[in-house]
Specification:
single chain; about 190 residues; mainly alpha; Fumarate Reductase Cytochrome B subunit; two-stranded antiparallel sheet
Length: about 190
């Protein structure tokens, strides 16, 4: 728990570590999804192989950072829902946060299992290769690939809703909710 908050209470804002992890994950997910969507349009060959390697490496990075995020949240706590939230906003916010966190774990794991079923190697930035943990199977590869594809678009939808909600709080309601995840130098004036 944040040392500036009494035991048992919740911090007023996310910790600096949580903010950093959030924004690093956001950038990594942006590039991972962007490359993943673009891969279908890159002709087979060295360029496609390169982008597949980058996509897989970023996916593993997202998975690792998601685990770090869970630990950071446990150590520093999370702010209580803002008093300005309506009941709908509180439910939507909770659903979006929990969905995104689940997808940060599920999406890379499904991608890894898909590559295992294909018997492809998942090299992480050329530093190491993930072990094979799933048997080779063309049927499983096809199913897992489609699941990975679908989860990617689900993640994109939830991210857009999350960003839309954050921007609404930051620039329409101007209630300070967005500021809880922004570095202080980017804070948006409140009403």
């Amino acid at each position: 728990m944040d040392s500036t908050t009494p035991a048992g209470s919740r911090p007023a804002s996310y910790s600096a570590a949580s903010k950093w992890i959030h924004w690093i994950i956001a950038v990594a997910v942006f590039f991972t999804l962007s490359i993943g969507i673009r891969l279908a349009y890159i002709p087979e060959g060295p360029a496609q192989d390169y982008y597949f390697d980058v996509h897989r490496s970023l996916g593993v990075l997202v998975l690792a950072l998601a685990a770090v995020r869970v630990v950071a949240r446990q150590m520093s706590g999370t702010p209580a829902p803002a008093a300005t939230l309506t009941k709908f906003e509180r439910i939507a916010s909770t659903a979006a946060h929990h969905s995104l966190l689940a997808l940060l774990f599920l999406q890379p794991i499904v991608g890894w299992l898909s590559m295992d079923a294909y018997r492809g190697d998942v090299s992480v930035f050329g530093l190491f290769t993930l072990p094979h943990i799933f048997p080779q199977s063309d049927a499983a590869y096809t199913a897992l690939s489609w699941l990975h594809f679908g989860l990617g678009y689900l993640m994109l939808f939830v991210i857009c809703a999350h960003i839309g909600g954050a921007l609404m709080h930051g620039f329409v309601k101007r209630d300070g909710v967005l500021n809880r995840m922004l570095p202080r130098f980017l804070w948006i004036p409140q009403k």
